[in-house]
Amino acid sequence: SDPIEDNIKDWDDYKNNYEALIAAQLFYPKNNYYQVIPWPQRVYEVKYPVGPDSDEEDYISRPYSTQIGIMYDMFEKMPLSDNKVSGSNGISVVMANSMMFQGIARDVPTKPSLHTNVSEFIDLDRVYEPMTETNDPQISNFFGLVNPFIKRGVPVHIVHMENMQYPDTWKDVKVLLMSYANQKPMEEAQHTYIANWVKDGGILVYASRDNDPFQEVPEWWNHNGNNYAKPVNHLFELMGIPEDAGEGEYSYGKGKVCVIRQNPKEMVLYKGGDKDLVEKVKALYDSTGEELEFKNSFYLERGPYTIISVIDEYEDTNPYTVNGCYVDLFNPKLPVLTTKSVMPGQRALLFDLSKIDHKRKPQIIAAASRAYDEVIKGRTYSFNVKGPYNTTNAMRIYLPSEPKEISVELQGSPVEYTSEWDAASKTLFIEFENSHHGNDVCIKY
């Protein structure tokens, strides 16, 4: 979860993309292990442009560093969930490890060695290359299948080719989107799994011209007794479909295959280019007995956490609004809200205070620090909190009743703080300087 990125942009851009990344990760409710930051030094110790049109550079701002700290704490507490992202589930896209093998076709000018400057190869990888029949530098053949549905509020899932042998990979998959314009199957057996799934009633949508040079690389489909010009010819043969099947629908067992002779990237290069794909997939999905729903938002609850993302580029430009009692975790001041409206192109991460367990027990709802040694004794709540040097710690703490006395100390010396009690939510907001040595907080209520 990188709060910046490899390409030098500006702090506003980093923050916007960071929130999008956080929401995207949390929309996988069966995952709760996270790398919270890959390279801390370049986030906290390097200057970047302060805005998109500014030549001024500065270190990370206090509000953004506080927000990042709140995310660290949130990741630690985020529970698994059996809930699903809102929308029509059942559409998946095939992804293979080989997708990254054929992004840009060009010669490497020098051979890597122990004495090669690593930055030379990093820079080489970032050289702009135009999209051609061969080159797909933005992995557009993947996003060409995914984005037409994501942009209509359909949660698209992934079927990983290297995991096809596991029954759970196929669980709840109704329509499978697939292309070999951007990847190739590394094992012959993967086609058997796909064919068996279709035979049992699955619906496969295959979109590819199959005219890229990687179709002809020396691989299993043209070696060791196999003589297929293209890898998909082997798959089609397994399902009784002509090797060079033209555009159209074909039946196999209880299922069907829809062939589209267009590379996915062509569908997203111009406005409306995805119309044919979307119409065909919707008709196929609707034929399963459930109507494919289009909307402009994604919504998921994971325990007390609510994740919302509202899509831009969709005809519905209305905000997604929730009412209740929430803490806004993307706001470094951790405000308590009774209403939150999320506009297109924005995300929200909220803590639902109505879902607090053990309401007689004081507890930290959110913090830009990590708490240790929590002790509840009588009507006293104490703990030690650690956070990165030169950052501000913001905390929202639930208490059974209003605090009567608050102290914050660093190694026995008082630390200045500000605090505010919200009687309606029974939460205390407190803010002070972080310390990697740890601040001792004691609250009597």
Structural overview:
- It is elongated, with a radius of gyration of 26 Å.
- The protein contains eight helices and 22 strands.
- The strands form five sheets. A six-stranded mixed beta sheet has the order 4-3-5-6-8-7, with helices on both faces. Strands 9-10-13-11-12 form a five-stranded antiparallel beta sheet.
- Mean pLDDT is 92; it is low at 108-127.
- The chain is α+β, with helices and mostly antiparallel strands.
- It has helices at 11-26, 40-44, 62-77, 118-125, 140-150, 189-199, 231-238, 275-286, and strands at 48-49, 57-58, 91-95, 157-160, 175-178, 203-207, 248-252, 255-260, 297-302, 305-310, 320-328, 336-342, 347-352, 363-367, 370-377, 380-386, 392-398, 405-410, 413-414, 417-422, 427-433, 439-444.
- α6 packs parallel to α7.
